[in-house]
Design a protein that fits this description.
The complex is a heterodimer of chains A (about 500) and B (about 400).
Chain A: H1 3-18, H2 21-27, H3 31-47, E1 74-81, H4 94-99, H5 106-109, E2 130-133, E3 138-141, H6 145-148, E4 154-161, H7 167-176, H8 186-194, E5 204-209, E6 233-234, H9 253-274, H10 277-299, H11 307-313, H12 322-334, E7 339-345, H13 358-382, E8 389-394, E9 398-403, E10 416-419, E11 423-429, E12 436-438, E13 440-441, E14 448-450, E15 453-454, H14 455-465, E16 475-477, E17 480-482
Parallel strand pairs in A: 1-7, 1-8, 4-12, 4-15, 5-6, 5-7
Antiparallel strand pairs in A: 2-3, 4-11, 8-11, 9-10, 13-14, 16-17
Helix pairs in contact in A: 2-3, 9-10, 12-13
Chain B: H1 3-7, H2 10-21, H3 23-45, H4 55-67, H5 71-74, H6 87-99, H7 118-123, H8 140-146, H9 165-176, H10 192-199, H11 206-211, H12 215-235, E1 240-242, E2 250-253, H13 263-267, E3 276-280, H14 291-295, E4 302-304, E5 326-328, H15 336-342, E6 350-352, H16 360-366
Parallel strand pairs in B: 2-3, 3-4, 4-5, 5-6
Antiparallel strand pairs in B: 1-2
Chain lengths: ~500, ~400
Amino acid sequence: MTPADRLLREYEHARLTAETRRHFLQKCSTGLGALFFSSLATRTSAATGRLGFSRPASSPLAPLPPQFAGRAKRVIYLHMAGAPSQLELFDYKPDLVRLDGKDCPASFLEGKRFAFISGVPKMLGPQFPFHQAGKSGTWMSDRLPFLERHIDDLAVIRSMRTDEFNHAPAQLMLHTGSPRLGAPSLGSWVTYGLGTENQNLPGFIVLVSGGKTPDGGKPLWGSGFLPSVYQGVQCRAKGDPVLFLSNPETVSRSERRRVLDAIGDLNREEHAAHGDPETLTRIAQYELAFRMQVSATDAMDLSRESAAIHARYGTKPGTESFANNCLLARRLAERGVRYIQLYHWGWDSHGVSEQTSLKNGFADLCREVDRPIAALIADLKERGLFDETLIVWGGEFGRTPMQENRNGQVQKWAGRDHHPGAFTIWLAGGGVKGGVSHGLTDDVGYNIVENPVELRDLQATIIRLLGFDHHYLTVPFQGLDQKITGVKPVKVVDDIIA
Amino acid sequence: MSEAARIGSGRREEAGVRRTSLAPQTEAGRLSHVDETSRLVFSRNRIGARQPRRSLARLVASAAAILLARPLSAAAPAVSPAERPTAYEQLVAPILRARCVECHGEAKRKGRLALHTWETFAKGGANGPAFVAGKTAESELLIRLKLPLAEEDHMPPRDEPQPAPAELALLERWIAAGASPTATVESLQLPADLIAAVARLPASRARATVATLDLAEVEKLRAPLAATVAALQQKFPGALSYESRSSAALHFTAAGLGRDFGDAELAQLLPLASQLVRLDLAATAITDRSGPVLARLTALRVLRAGFTAISDDTLPALAPLTALEAFSVNHTAVTDRGLAALKKLPALRELHLAGTAVSPDAARKSGLPVVASAAPEPLSPPSPTETPAPSSPNR
């Protein structure tokens, strides 16, 4: 079979799969088909009523006004993949100092499952000194001295909890609302809801550092059941920011333009025939890629920044680092990108090696992220962008107040196991009340005793700050108006909203 | 039962029960307040438009007319003396409805106190009158509201939504001014910043905003400029959008246009002048030639012009921008000399001058709300502070 034959067969196959029951019914102008259509018309008008959210499929990325004037126009989400220990950063537990090295009380272990802890582990005291910082007197350890200068801009939530204790499902749950694959990520929802201000760049950009893609993988920025135009676009810190973006050597930009025009015509015919929104996505993405050949290179080029800026962030152009990604995040925010997602891997401090010990690897990571985050906040403030950019920092779950004892063995290094029951995140910027601490854990930081915040509460709060009521940011799918927060009760964290 | 629940006090559990049993009323109470709050915000955006029928919106327009004499209110039709809003109806009652009547209202009269009507409010409860006219320090309502959150007597109970500082300030003003049911809003002489603060009351009541959204009304407000807006949206993809679904106010951002956007392009936005509240021109090609255009965009609340060729010469032209709250000219040629012109902007509360030649001294002396430029991060981390003896962690 020649390549042309294969292509033809592939096309035939695609055409046949695209032919759905809907098309069959569409062709029946009477009977069942007519019935189907009248019902479809009713549903559409209900969905586009004053409450429902709807977006014209023909302009998937055009900016749409939020339901009410939002406080934040964009999000920079700094995900510390692997889950940093709240007990070494923000959740100060003096009692844990006293209990250090003692056997864990049986009541903590009853009915609990851990990723690695077995038998009776020992309690582990905080590995670093804590103090009260800023005018707000927020408790924090000495590991984030640069961030400390901005502590009064942060709203610290110490009472986050999740259902998942393994990285991939926990990350999925945080970013998509479901521990299973297939739901759209928060960035996709936000881009779907608000569109994007810069039509030459994707609305949702993902930057990864730390030497590893987070365990949840690309579904963390997937679009799930939303059209794929809303999925996050991963940009690389080295080489071409997006793979295969530049033209092959022998193809000029004008040639490429002509090719895209021809393909666009074919795709529009295809869409007229089948009405598949993915065809529109394809057209939009080809066009976006064409514009990005110029704009992405400019946005991602850190060498255009001054030496003073590089000194402030600790950036080195041409490498892959969290610092570079923070500076990129600022460049993208300036250019109107809606949702900028950073992942920095390495926080999984089990204490099975020097690299995963709290005293060593963890401390190194703190140093690695501290200055760039502080620089990012300062930079946004200077540019008048801080008030309209929401920054979120945190991991996918917390860590145990017990020292991990993998296989029942006392380990040489101090580390902590996964703990879904309590962890800390912070928010800052657009619409966030600074200097606030929300929620309280018990004396050892194991359970939440005040103001528990579920992931869906956090998601709803982020959406609220962007100008949406999460109840009304929906898309019809599988017979339901789907929303990221699902069907369980949700409480927006009003305490942290300025 | 979770540990969290076990640790919860009796009072809290009682509060939980109360909340559940009164849920529908809570909603209704909040809805009405939200409705008005949202309309208030909404009304700020509908510059030159017909006055809305509802309360708080009119308050802001009329109070603003008197206190600020801004073009915003000048364009609004005059309110006849007979229908001048009373401060109680427009201001005080909505706050009480939102924050208090769930427990102190028609259905529940905790402490035999009911705040849902003027008569019951004036009568007070088991602990005496709710307020003493003209005496804020003796008014139980204010005393309870201002108690530390941890105090048992603090109202509303600490796990309930708390009033915003602006709401407190308004109640205080009203009582200080004599707590009269007939006093007009104007007679309170509310300062401009308080009005602005009320207008910015938490967006946390979005749900009702959406639920009460009158899209036909919004459509009407947008109609006069709709065609222009649509044409400009075509011309500048992604740049122009309404502030919200409930608003005719417009935002324009040149973030995606960069240096392709210059003086000629900016001039095309002039027809939007009455509705354009936010304009982001950072890193565009605009120059001082745009001064006269900017001068006519009098509805602007936010103007970003950093990284442009704007200089001191443009700043005096901005005097008509009386609604301007935030202005960035970071990384431009602006100097100390230009600052004087900005003192004339009455609403300015945020000025970004990072990366300009403006000296910290001149910035301080100007009295302008200059956002401090962060000192560059030092190369070595600051030394960790000493660990004080732990008092009460996490509070």
